[in-house]
Specification:
about 50 residues; mainly alpha; DUF559; Restrct_endonuc-II-like; endonuclease; endonuclease activity; nuclease
């Protein structure tokens, strides 16, 4: 489990540095709540700007 967490943190860091917003969900989470969180994140995300 520790190696998975460390890998996820590395992947999150690389993706965040590339301008991505990382969302992680578990298979047991309510799909309606997951969809709502995705919509909220996309709707209120900072505008992407090229360097």
């Amino acid at each position: 489990m520790t190696t998975n967490r460390a890998r996820d943190e590395r992947v999150n860091s690389v993706l965040n540095e590339a301008g991505w917003i990382v969302l992680r969900f578990w298979e047991h989470e309510d799909p309606t709540e997951v969809a709502a969180q995705i919509v909220e994140t996309v709707r209120f995300r900072p505008q992407w700007r090229r360097p």
